[in-house]
Design a protein that fits this description.
alpha+beta, 53% helix, 225 residues, Hypothetical protein af1432
């Protein structure tokens, strides 16, 4: 049997109707449950960051593209259920990428990254997964908050709304990956950030270590990790 093989890019996924629908529905369904935004804005940002992390560490162009692909579709299974959306998303991604003609070797990298990006059950098992983890966990920003009534904010809303700026910085020479945040502590004390994000930061430490780097966290110009 001869299989059709294609070189798939993230731009192909951005033009794919199936992916567009899944992003739109994920945003809509999670919004009804009061979750922060997990749709196309988040996907586009994480995709770009995952690509940049590997590029800054001198990974090859194709590896960077695969990280961007994983970043763009890592959250599509939120339309199914928030629980185990990493595992469900990996299976959905397999179907999409196989339909588009991606090679099994590349599909394996992408779906394993997607299946391992949740802090509850994920691990930095390869370079694409590591870049995805770091990119995903660095998206802390008020633009993710879907509520409009501050009185109804819960802790996730407060933490994200308090985040005025977030950036991930890679220093190849110094072998460090640093998440730098600016947080309005009048909206959210730093303890609330650690209350919900400590597991994510530990996951980032492991992801950075897989890439041969140490992980640092700087909040309001103070180094905390």
């Amino acid at each position: 049997m001869v299989f059709k093989v294609a070189v798939i890019t993230v731009d192909d996924l951005k033009k794919d109707h199936e992916v567009e629908v899944y992003h739109r529905c994920s945003t809509e369904y999670l919004g009804k449950l009061g979750y922060t935004e997990h749709g196309r804005r988040h996907a586009t940002l994480v995709s770009g960051l995952a690509r940049k992390i590997l590029a800054d560490l001198d990974y090859g162009e194709r590896d960077c593209e695969l990280a961007a692909i994983a970043g763009y579709i890592h959250d599509i299974a939120n339309l199914v259920n928030r629980y185990n959306h990493g595992g469900n998303g990996a299976m959905m991604a397999y179907i999409i990428l196989n339909r588009l003609g991606m090679t099994p070797e590349e599909i394996a990298l992408v779906v394993s990254a997607i299946g391992n990006h949740e802090e509850e059950r994920g691990n930095a098992i390869n370079h694409v997964a590591s870049a995805l983890i770091l990119a995903d966990k660095s998206d802390v920003h008020r633009s993710r908050v879907t509520h409009t009534d501050f009185a109804k904010f819960e802790i996730h809303d407060r933490v994200n709304y308090a985040a005025e700026k977030s950036e991930i910085l890679v220093d190849k020479a110094g072998k460090t990956v640093t998440l730098k945040l600016t947080i309005d502590t009048k909206i959210c004390p730093l303890m609330e950030y650690f209350e919900i994000f400590l597991d994510r930061m530990l996951m980032c430490q492991r992801a950075a270590a897989f890439l041969g780097c140490s992980f640092g966290l700087v909040i309001n110009d103070t180094k905390l990790l």
